[in-house]
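Re: the 76-residue chain
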Amino acid sequence: MKAVEFLKIIEGLLKTMSTFGLKRDDYLHINLYEEYAIMRSEGEKVDYILRFLSDKYKISESTIKRVIKRFSKEVR
């Protein structure tokens, strides 16, 4: 299968992701977001969570904030 054939198969999914503001590499951050949600439900402060996840996943706190914002949006 050529790349273009694969893209044609998932074209609808890619369009939907784009409509909802999701990025193609967002799947890389699913575990990060789930960990964030667990820590918030346990009462941890956002600043602490951001620092902790930034160190753990080796990405900036501002990137984590953007991921959390995208993942927290309702999709309809």
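Residues 23-76 form one domain.
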